[in-house]
Amino acid sequence: DAGVTQSPTHLIKTRGQHVTLRCSPISGHKSVSWYQQVLGQGPQFIFQYYEKEERGRGNFPDRFSARQFPNYSSELNVNALLLGDSALYLCASSLGQGYSNQPQHFGDGTRLSIL
Amino acid sequence: DAKTTQPTSMDCAEGRAANLPCNHSTISGNEYVYWYRQIHSQGPQYIIHGLKNNETNEMASLIITEDRKSSTLILPHATLRDTAVYYCIVRVGSGGSNYKLTFGKGTLLTVNP
Fold first, then answer.
1. In this complex, do B46 and A43 lie within 8 Å of one another by their Cβ atoms?
2. How far apart are the CA of A80 and the nearest CA of chain B, in angstroms?
C-alpha cells in the first residue's frame, strides 16, 4: 500500500511569493496534519484536519492556511513568503477520531527554499 | 502534553542492542509514549507506541517503567541503517480531536561498524 505522498519534493521560491504544497494520505486515513521542520530542529505542528474541518492549529501566522478535500487529500498554502519559511514541510496522516491513539504516518516532505 | 528528556547522542556497535532512554516524569494517565525516528532527508518514521505495558513489534521493543515516568526503546540488533535521530513523544491517546505531536530534539543514534 502507498504511504503518505507529498508533492512537489523540492521547491524554490522568492520572498513575497506564495506556495501550495500537496499531500495524499494513506488510503483509509481521514486525518491529515502538517508540520514544519527547520534545519536542526524537530518538526513543529502547523495544522490538523479531520473530515475537512480544522481541528488544531499551531503557533503560526495567518499567512499559513490549509484545507482538506472530500477525498481526504490536503493542501498547505503559505502567502507572502519570508526567508524564514525555508524548511522541510511534512504531512502526516492517521485514521482519525475514534482511533485517536493510533500513530500518525509521515511523508518524506517538501523541501521549500526561499531566495 | 508531557515534556520528554532524551540524551543528545548515543553510539552503538553494529549487531549489538541499542537502548535509547526517555524520561517523561510528568506523564498523565491517559498519555501514550510514541517513538519515531528520522533518517537524514526523510520524514519521521513511526516505530512503536504504548500506554503502560511493554510492547514489541518487528522493529523494536518498548519498555515502560511501572510508574510510567520513563521508557526505553530497544533495537535488538542495530545495523548501520538504524543511524538516525530518535524522538520520544508523549501524547494524549484518547478524547479530543487535536492529535498534534510535539517533537523535541531527540537522540542522534550512530551505529558504528
1. no
2. 26
Q: How are strands ordered across the β-sheet holding B70-75?
A: B18-23, B70-75, B61-64, B55-56
Instruction: Locate the chain A residue with the closest alpha carbon to B32.
Output: A101
Using one digit for the tens of pLDDT, what is the confidence trace for A3-17? 999 999 999 999 999
Residue A2 pLDDT: 81
Q: Answer yes or no: do B99 and A106 touch at CB < 8 A.
A: no
Helices (H), chain A: none
Q: Does B8 reach chain A within 8 Å, measured CB to CB?
A: no
What's the CA gap between A96 and A105, in Å, rounded? 12
**Backbone torsion region of residue A55, taken as left when φ is above 0, otherwise alpha when ψ lies between -120 and 50, otherwise beta:** alpha
The answer to whether the CB atoms of A56 and B97 lie below 8 A apart is yes
* Euclidean distance between CA atoms B14 and A71, whole angstroms: 44
* Separation between Cα atoms, residue B45 and residue A106, nearest integer Å: 7
Handedness of CA A85, A90, A93, A96 (dihedral sign): negative
Cell numbers that stand for B3 in this block? 515534556
